[in-house]
Amino acid sequence: MNCLGGIRAAALCAAAAVLAMVSCTGDVQSPGIVPLPCSVAAGEGEFCLSADVPVYVCPDTREMRCAADELKELMERVFGTESCPGFIFCGSLDEVAHPAVTMVLSDRMPASSYSLEVSEDGVAVEGGDAAGVFYAVQTLRQLIPAEVQGFSGSVPAVPLQAVSVEDSPAFEYRGVMLDAARHFFSVDEVKTLLDIMAIHKMNVFHWHLTDDQGWRIEIDSFPELTRIGSVRKRTIVGKDPGGEYDETTQYDGTPHSGYYTKDDVREIVEYAAGRFITVVPEIEFPGHAVAAIASYPWLGCTGEQFEVRQTWDIDDRVFCIGRESTFSFFEEVLSEVAELFPSGYIHIGGDECPSKMWEKCPECRRRMEELGLESFRRLQGYGTGRIEKFLGSLGRSIIGWDEILEAGVSDSAIVMSWRGCDTGIEAAKRGNRVIMSPTEYSYFDYYQSSDIDAEPLAWGGYLPLEKVYSFDPYSGLDDGEKPLVLGVQANLWTEYIPDFTQAEYMLLPRLAAMSEVAWHGPCDKDYRDFRKRLPVLLQLYRTYGYRFCESGLCEM
Ligand code: TNX
């Protein structure tokens, strides 16, 4: 053991080691890591991490520096910003003097995978790529007691039990969706969400930016989208009765507004990239369009001037598919969007689009006749196909909510299955790639405790932690179809989530369960074992100041 922090550090190391790792029988226990790695083997002995242990990072690339920054942030939480260890960026490990922390790449390992070895020599991380190294740092975060991670810098050394971890993700797409349209969240709040995602090894941020109740992204060619479309003059109070609005409907009388400037978007995309998170923007088409139509009435079938919607639920006022102007609008908007987001995927919505307006619209009817389309759903499919083709010319694939399947999609479209898993299964059987995000396992706007009266008002439904944990994204698929499941996603719709602390509350700890589904995969999952490991993460939530639902923990 190399404890340079003096007697106090040595004593702290010894006491914490006893508390953290040794069971009543005296056996050495595996540490509690969530999501569960592929393999964790506790070893003998320990390493005392202190502020003067050097950290070697090689090769010296931009991405490895991102992984190193994450470790630096973690070390600063423990040792303080003044006495963080020195980072040495190097070409090879020949120059390493042990004990040390080493972070290197290995060409024997697949992307995003890593190994982490704590021994008396120090901490050795190998990653298949820099993302893998970054995930190793997240695992290390859970090996360091949360109690010392409070940025106080008062701890000179931390004991780490010897352990050997081998790990790689089950799914390449591990998503979290935030609906920033129903309620706006600031750049800093979005960054906090990205931090939360990172500690759970989630890697896709699906950013729902447009809806009936708000358009939240600046588009230079169409300034009214944000001048008008980002402001809702008031919001319904309490539970939306679903279309039955009258003089008894109550509103808060307070305008709700906010949008992301292009600089905000760039800042968030860069922040996410530093955490190996891809940002997938969603621009809804052809439904959930009222804020856009309120900004430019010619986008609707009737040309009528509407207000940005102030209630929730599904709206009949959708984009006109008969007029060419709708497509020129989308091409302009999506060109600007594609310029901001390097993601290979762009989400084009596609959900909940009533055809009532199209049925009465001569332009839409003419379009259907010309094309010989037999249903209004197919009209949607025609529109989606055009948008897919356009985005294809920009080198992007589309993701759409599962209604795009009914409307008719190309083989290259990715279907996000939300109305249960059946549409995802159907899409996979057709050969399309899918992301499983069904209401019954992934809707984090649902209640997480059965004691609804004690919970903040939510959309409805009931989705306790254990249910999220039981999600098997492969269910119903045969082995040949399973590779078409890119991954899973937790969805945070925010009709009833007016502020970010409530978003945290709805997300946590259910995101921990979803992360285990996404990262560890469906085989050999064990809820009891998950619950035994979870307290380490809960303690991190407390230390980092993330609000979470404690009552949900009682639902077994
Ligand atoms: C359905 S899921 C929606 C959203 C709502 C959500 C509430 C989906 C593609 N559409 O517009 O916010 O239900 O749970």
Structure description:
The chain is α/β, with parallel strands linked by helices and 556 residues long. It has two domains: 3-167, Chitobiase, domain 2 (2-Layer Sandwich), CATH 3.30.379.10; 173-524, TIM Barrel, CATH 3.20.20.80. Helix content is 35%, strand content 18%. The protein has 18 helices and 21 strands. It has helices at 6-21, 62-79, 130-143, 187-199, 224-227, 262-273, 290-295, 324-340, 356-359, 362-371, 376-393, 403-407, 422-430, 439-442, 465-469, 500-507, 510-520, 527-544; strands at 39-50, 55-58, 87-89, 100-105, 114-119, 122-127, 157-167, 173-179, 204-208, 210-211, 214-215, 231-232, 256-257, 278-282, 345-347, 397-401, 414-417, 434-436, 446-447, 460-462, 485-492. The strands form five sheets. An eight-stranded parallel beta sheet has the order 14-9-8-21-18-17-16-15. Strand 8 (173-179), helix 4 and strand 9 (204-208) form a beta-alpha-beta unit. Helix 4 packs parallel to helix 6 and helix 8 crosses helix 11 (376-393). The longest helix is centred in the N-terminal third of the chain and has 18 residues, at 62-79. The radius of gyration is 25 Å and the shape is globular. The two termini are 42 Å apart. Residues 1-27 have low confidence and may be disordered. The structure holds ligand TNX.
